[in-house]
Each structure stands twice: as C-alpha cells, then as structure tokens.
C-alpha cells in the first residue's frame, strides 16, 4: 500500500478560530498534512497585531497559523455566511472557538452544518464548554489558571499564587482539540459518521494537572504549593550552587544511596530522618541543608558533571533560548527555518511527534490576510473571477485581495 504524503494528506479543515487555542489545534493538523483554510474577518485575527514582530509580522500569529491559507469573509453579512456554509460543505473538519451560541447565530453551528453534511467532524474550543453554568463566560489563560487550581499550586508556600510561565491553558486546549479531531476522524472511518468535539479549556487544564487531580481524588485534600520541590518526594527539586541553581530528582533508596556517596556524605543513608522517600520528604528542609552544604561550593556546571557521571538525574535550569539553541533541540529539529513574507527566513516551531513512515512533517509560513481568498473560493465554492470581484466590491470579502507573498 502506498502511504499518503503525510498522515492527514487529503483531509480538509475549515478554521474559524482565532488567537491561540483553536489556531494551535488546526496548525497541528496542518503539520500532519491537512489542508487548512483559515476564515478571517476583514480586520484579521487579533493575533496579527500582537508582538513581537519580525519584518512587520507577528511571531505569535506566524507560529499558530503555519501551514494555512487565509480567506477573508465577513460573517456578519448574509452572503458571507452563505459562502462560509459552502466552504464547510467541502470540509472534513471545522474548528471554531467562538463563545457557545455564536456559531449558531452565524449559521455555522454543528447542528446546522451536520444536517447537510453528517460526515463532518466539528471541533468547538471554548473556555468552559458548550454546557454548564459557566459556559457563557469569556475565558483567557489567566482566568483558567486561576479557576482550575494551577495558580494556587504554583509558587512558594509562603508567597502568592503564581502563573505558569506561558499560556498553558490555551496550549493544552489546542492539543486536546487536535487529539479529539484525530479520534473522531478515525471513528468516522469505521462508522461513516462525524461528531461534535466539545473541548473546554476548563476541562483541559484540569486534565493537564493529572498529579494534582489524582492526589485530590484519592485524599479529598487539595494539594498546596510547595515551591521548587516535589510535593511528596525528596531530594526532588531545585537546589543552590555557587553560581545559580540546578534541579535534582532522586526517587528511590538505591539512587539516594548512590547520591549520598557521590556528594561525600554516605552517613545520610543511615540517618533515620532519611531512610525512605516518605521520611526524606518529611524532613526535606534538613536534607536540603546537607545537600546545599556540598553544592554551594561548586558551580552549576561542576554539580551537573559530578552527578551526571554518577548516573544521578540532574540538570541546569535553562531559559527558553538556551533550551531551543541546545544541541538536543537542534538535532530534533524543533525550530524550522522557512521563507518569510519578504523572502528572508523565519523560524517556526515544528510539531514534536516523529513518525518512522515519514521523514518529516510540514512547516510552512503563515498566510497574509486574505491571501488565498480568490483561489479558495474558485476551487471550493466554484465562483468565477467576476463574482468574486462583485462580492469584494460589496464588502463581503474585505476591502482588497492581499498581494501574494514571495517565496524562495
């Protein structure tokens, strides 16, 4: 059997989403070969205006909208809604992240589209899902981190609740949405029927905190933040060195014995406070003091060399730049150079999963606003040039067709 060019080759996605969670979902599908047509209002996705910028283009928009075509349609107009419905009739998947009820008012809700196209897989990404007392609420990442217990579990025990350092609720929601779409497409192969994939950022964020959820479900007690250490294991956390910090992960007695010998304190193994993981965790402060009496005399590099050579799980604390520029990240190809609007190159993230059957997945530039309006409407909606010009003159397709961008 001949393999497709990529796993999702031949799958068409119509993407009404904007900003982060929905666009990331469709970008991940595009990475795997799906044809993704992004429908934007005349003003464009809000992320186009959010920095940082390179050559006048938003880095955030570029990353979340790689591998897509852009079509401008004003969904507030009857003709615009009719065009959107026509495009969805040619799709395998629709992705939207409007508040519940908005897609229905625009004539592109699941019930409306699936009535004419029962094979359609339709993914809705919203703050709190399509049901429940909070479903009407708008949601931003900070709101979800606060409401799902993630902030409360992050930070020093004597400090304020702390945000995780990126829009993790948005990202995990996009990831779960793409996972749901893939499951629905597989089921469609077996049943011939599509489905509505309802992804709530609230649900996804709670699912992300799998350890916290498991602890609460077992004990009935909400875990509290413990700072840069593990809630129930030791030594497992961040420790001081002479010139910075490093992290250490020792999870069993055999490893602890080797660690104690490596740092020149074999007597720690016989100390009744440190006989097993539970007692070490209970007396974590005392154990930390003994460890740091050794580590503060050494640089982070020296600590990492000595512990790594002994087979102890240890690592320096890098910033994101150091991580992405590391030899490991380069070998795995996590950033890809691809042609930018002006013919220079832009670095875009590549999806992280590797497949033995395909040498690489796809990473192409994000589109200019409305760049593919004419070509997509000709191909999928069967409109001729005159009709497209008429719709553009009437404001249905925005003010103008974006000039095609050079590629080299």
Automatic annotation (TrEMBL):
Record keywords: Transferase
Lyase is among the record's keywords: no
Alphabetical list of Gene3D superfamilies matching this protein: Crotonobetainyl-coa:carnitine coa-transferase, domain 1, formyl-coa transferase, domain 3
Entries under InterPro entries matching the protein: CoA-transferase_III_domain, CoA-Trfase_fam_III, CoA-Trfase_III_dom3_sf, CoA-Trfase_III_dom_1_sf
Domain of life: Bacteria
Pfam families xref list: CoA_transf_3
Gene Ontology MF term list: CoA-transferase activity
PANTHER family, A to Z: SUCCINATE--HYDROXYMETHYLGLUTARATE COA-TRANSFERASE
Name of the protein in its database record: CoA transferase
Species, as recorded: Paraburkholderia pallida
């Amino acid at each position: 059997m001949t393999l497709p060019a990529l796993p999702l080759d031949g799958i068409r996605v119509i993407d009404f989403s904007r900003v982060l969670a929905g666009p990331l979902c469709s970008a991940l599908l595009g990475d795997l070969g799906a044809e993704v047509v992004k429908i934007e209002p005349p003003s464009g996705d809000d992320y186009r205006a959010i920095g940082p910028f390179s050559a006048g283009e938003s880095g955030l928009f570029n990353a979340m909208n790689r591998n897509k075509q852009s079509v401008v349609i004003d969904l507030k107009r009857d003709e615009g809604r009719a065009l959107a419905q026509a495009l969805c009739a040619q799709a395998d998947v629709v992705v939207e992240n409007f508040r519940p009820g908005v897609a229905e008012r625009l004539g592109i809700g699941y019930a409306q589209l699936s009535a004419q196209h029962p094979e359609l897989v339709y993914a809705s990404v919203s703050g709190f899902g399509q049901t429940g007392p909070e479903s009407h609420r708008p949601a931003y990442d900070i709101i979800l981190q606060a409401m799902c217990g993630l902030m409360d579990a992050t930070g020093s025990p004597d400090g304020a609740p702390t945000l995780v350092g990126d829009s993790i609720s948005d990202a995990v929601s996009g990831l779960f949405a793409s996972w749901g779409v893939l499951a629905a497409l597989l089921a469609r192969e077996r049943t011939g029927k599509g489905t509505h994939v309802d992804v709530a950022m609230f649900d996804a964020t709670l699912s992300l905190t799998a350890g916290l959820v498991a602890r609460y479900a077992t004990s009935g007690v909400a875990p509290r933040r413990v700072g840069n250490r593990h809630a129930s294991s030791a030594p497992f956390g961040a420790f001081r060195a002479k010139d910075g910090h490093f992290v250490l992960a020792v999870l069993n007695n055999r490893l602890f014995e080797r660690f104690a010998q490596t740092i020149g304190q074999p007597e720690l193994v016989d100390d009744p406070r440190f006989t097993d993981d539970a007692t070490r965790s209970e007396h974590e402060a005392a154990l930390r003091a003994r460890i740091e009496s050794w580590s503060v005399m050494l640089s982070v590099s020296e600590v990492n060399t000595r512990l790594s050579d002994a087979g102890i799980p240890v690592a320096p604390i890098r910033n994101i730049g150091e991580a992405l520029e590391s030899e490991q990240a380069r070998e795995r190809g996590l950033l890809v150079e691809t042609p930018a609007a002006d013919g220079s190159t832009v670095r875009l993230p590549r999806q992280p999963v590797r497949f033995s059957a395909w040498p690489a997945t796809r990473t192409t530039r994000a589109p200019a606003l409305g760049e593919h309006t004419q070509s997509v409407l000709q191909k999928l909606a069967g409109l001729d040039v005159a009709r497209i010009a008429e719709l553009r003159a009437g404001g249905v397709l925005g003010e103008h067709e974006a000039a095609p961008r050079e590629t080299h």
